[in-house]
Amino acid sequence: MATTYATGKRKTAVAKVWVKPGSGKITVNGMDLNSWLGGHEAIKLKVVQPLLVTKQETSMDITATTLGGGYSAQAEALRHGISRALASIDVTFRAALKPQGLLTRDSRVVERKKYGRRKARRSPQFSKR
In the prediction, which pLDDT does 105 show? Predict the structure, then answer.
């Protein structure tokens, strides 16, 4: 099996993911997962969730490049990219990933600011006098 490429997205973050057979090493932006995310254990679990669902945590090497957004959005984009790459590798992986919602792109983005408003929807404070 050759290297498989997929793109994951979340808000304004994008993750370019390459998955290939290996020993379970995850490299993000030239760093391993622990040094990339530091002590954020819950976010690390989000990243490896597709591997745990498909039972591939020790048989796939992942190389990724992330850009845009914050580290949390980048981690969710990485999760989406890993899921898409695994789904393209094997059809049975898709059947396991789809019910968990890992193949769905979370399309919620920040709403743009409108003129005459302080934020996207917040009106200026009303003054009676």
Answer: 93
Q: 10 Å Cβ neighbour count for 109?
A: 11
9 residue type, one letter: K
Q: According to the model, what pLDDT value does residue 2 have?
A: 86
Q: Are 19 and 4 in contact (CB under 8 A)?
A: yes
CA-to-CA dists, residue 23 to 5, 61, 98, 117, angstroms: 18, 6, 25, 53
Residue 108 pLDDT > 80: yes
Q: How many contiguous H segments (helices) and E segments (strands) does the chain have?
A: 4, 5
pLDDT averaged over the chain? 94
| CB contact burial 45-78 (16+ within 10 A = b; e otherwise) | ebbbbbbebbebeeebebbbebeebeebbbbbbb
Type and span of the H or E element at 85 = helix 71-89
- Please state, as a whole number, how many other Cβ atoms lie within 10 Å of the Cβ of residue 33: 18
